[in-house]
Write a structure and sequence with these properties.
Blueprint (H helix, E strand, L loop, with lengths): L1 H5 L6 E2 L1 E3 L2 E3 L3 E2 H8 L10 E5 L5 H8 L4 E5 L3 H14 L4 E4 L13 E7 L8 H10 L1 E13 L7 E3 L12 E3 L1 H10 L2 E11 L16 H4 E2 L2 E5 L7 E9 L1
Parallel strand pairs: 1-4, 5-6, 5-8, 6-7, 8-9
Antiparallel strand pairs: 2-3, 9-15, 10-11, 12-15, 13-14
The chain binds S-adenosylmethionine.
The site of S-adenosylmethionine has 19 residues, from helix 2.
Length: about 240
């Protein structure tokens, strides 16, 4: 079993303990969950959608916190295969992962009591459209949990990144907290707040035996880790929570 799971590298989001095998993933996604869970509505009995769920690490944590059902969506086939490997042992009927992007979801299907979008907003070319897509999938009075990269201070509240940010090719823009709050309000949410801000540490995202490529250390300026190697501020993340009217 260890060898079969190891063959599915790189493992990015976790960690997972599968019987005797500890999958030491690139990211300590459990640390993100520790930052998120104290601020959100109880998941007890809720139907939850996790957009950009990766292998589904946070979906398992949502089920652990009482969610009735979790649908994770993520277009990456590698993440689907890793999820299937875990489901082979977990066999949980209340969790499905579909290999699709949010743009493939029905345009208005307001079924979910909580919708999470963590680490996705900056991958979307049109941020307000993404927030509206999330709203259209939320039931009335449902909760939006949006986690994303933020920047402290930039003219107009939005940094349009050139080519790469921390070596990632598909980061289109990074916004200030105020800008993100104003977009969420513009999309029609109430009770909008930024509940947490956190600079990603070299201990939270790092190379491991299960992910042997470059990681955050190589994506930062070797002489000044407050900057990316492209000269932008180093990754800082914000957690935004809002209610659908
Ligand atoms: C930075 S990772 C975040 C993973 C996880 N949500 C977390 O917070 O650790 C971004 C994820 O979004 C997924 N993604 C990219 N474009 C997407 C889209 N259009 N719809 C849904 N997910 C998308 C990627 O495949 C990737 O797994």
């Amino acid at each position: 079993m260890h060898d079969a799971l190891f063959a599915l590298r790189p493992w990015r989001k976790g960690p997972y303990q599968i019987f005797d095998t500890f999958i030491d993933t690139e990211w300590r996604s459990d640390w993100k969950w520790q930052r998120v869970s104290p601020h959100i509505a109880s998941l007890e009995g809720r139907a939850v959608l996790d957009v950009g769920c990766g292998t589904g690490y946070h979906c398992w944590r949502m089920l652990g916190d009482g969610a009735d059902y979790v649908l994770g969506i993520d277009p990456s086939m590698r993440f689907l295969v890793q999820h299937m490997a875990i489901q082979k042992y977990a066999q949980n009927p209340n969790f499905d992962l579909l290999p699709i992007g949010i743009e493939d979801m029905p345009s208005s299907m307001p079924l979910f009591d909580s919708v999470f979008s963590m680490g996705v907003l900056y991958h979307r070319r049109n941020p307000i459209n993404h927030i509206i897509e999330l709203k259209d999938l939320l039931a009335s009075s449902g909760e939006l949990v949006l986690e994303t990269l933020i920047i402290d201070d930039v003219e107009g509240g939005i940094l349009a990144t050139k080519e790469r940010y921390a070596q990632m090719r598909n980061v289109w823009s990074i916004m200030t907290v105020d800008k993100i709050i104003s977009l969420i309000k513009q999309a029609g949410f109430t009770n909008v707040r930024c509940a947490d801000q956190n600079v990603t540490s070299l201990d939270e995202q790092r190379r491991t035996e299960w992910m042997q490529f470059h990681s955050l250390k190589e994506f930062l300026d070797p002489h000044d880790i407050s900057k990316t190697i492209e000269g932008y501020p180093a990754p800082k993340r914000g957690l935004f929570i809002a209610t659908k009217c």
